[in-house]
Amino acid sequence: MISNSQSESGISFVGCGSATPPKIINNDQLGQRVDTNDEWIKSRTGIRERRVIGENQSLIDLASDAALKAIKMANWDEKTIDLIILATSTPEDLFGSAPKIQSNLGASNAVAFDLTAACSGFLFALVTASQYLASGSMKRAVVIGADQLSKWVDWDDRKTCVLFGDGAGAVAVEANKNDNGLIGYDLKSDGSRGGCLNLSQSNIFLDLVQGATYQKGEYLPIRMEGKEVYKFAVKEVPIILGELLDKHQIESESIDWLLLHQANQRILDAVASRFLIPSDKVLSNLEHYGNTSAATIPLMLDEAVRDERIKSGDLIACSGFGAGLSWGAALFYWHGPY
Ligand code: UT7
């Protein structure tokens, strides 16, 4: 477990951006491929459609686009960026996709690396970036959550294929001694329960030379025990969020927005009802994008900032959860220009 003790993080949220592919696949279209239908998907998940990256576009394009918009909102010169973290489980290059984004942005003074924590990835990356900023070693960071789960979904498995989509979101955060933008956070992992949601390598060994084999680099499609993950989310998210609110002596009535990983509307509703948060304070756009893994939180944040639901000074209670198992929560004030 990792958590901070005080409101001394000294970072400000000053920009956000997002990007999604143009190709929309709706529930009826999926019903033409697998034995499912719009009614089942909508009532069990809240999802109506999702976006899928097609030819002539890439995850790096989306992530770069989202990051550029965040930098523009923050009004930063890209040369002043110190750090770029790309939270993703679906990199284009297993050696890391963040450096290519750094190059696309022209952020030649930034160090860039990938971080993998599945659907909790954005939150884990945000907290990681905040450590560099709070320590004083860096001043400006871009944190991106981007995933292309469409390439790892088994499109013939109705239990998973209806849930996921592709997208990217980003935030620009900077060190600010006079601001306590990130009030607090808590991150957790439990590998003993990791078997209920995996994108595992295949176990294929081929002959190398006489007496030796090598493992072929290949991954199996996403496999999920949906009910187990559902139970995990509705149990652990209220606990971690409740403990964080208690620790910082914040009443749930003070929360302006509940911003959860967009996996299932029923999970969002269950967590909101546990804290008596009215539905108009629960941010939700999974209807249009499905579960975009590390992208859901910044994608939702960006939408709500740009349509002026979220205003400067609003308090946001955020939680991400997913494979690992991993989960986390953060309380922060939005201080962007909108
Ligand atoms: O980002 C990582 C976090 N992931 C999550 O948070 C996912 C959490 N889990 C869930 O959101 C839900 O468990 C699901 C949406 C995945 C499934 O909903 P459920 O209410 O738990 O359904 P279920 O798996 O218990 O399935 C109920 C029935 C089954 O049929 P039988 O066995 O009762 O005859 C399934 O075969 O629904 C069937 N089913 C479907 N039917 C039509 C499963 N998927 C589909 C489908 N269309 N797409």
Could you walk me through the main structural features you see in this protein, from its secondary elements to its overall organization?
The relative contact order is 0.20. The longest helix has 22 residues, at 226-247. The model has no long low-confidence stretch (mean pLDDT 95). This protein is α+β, with helices and mostly antiparallel strands. It is globular and about 60 Å long. The chain contains 10 helices and 16 strands. It has a single domain, classed as Peroxisomal Thiolase, Chain A, domain 1, CATH 3.40.47.10. It has a 5-stranded mixed beta sheet, sandwiched between helices. Bound molecules: oxa(dethia)-CoA (UT7). Oxa(dethia)-CoA is lined by residues 36, 40-41, 44-45, 119, 158-159, 162, 226-227, 229-230, 233, 263-264, 267, 291, 322.
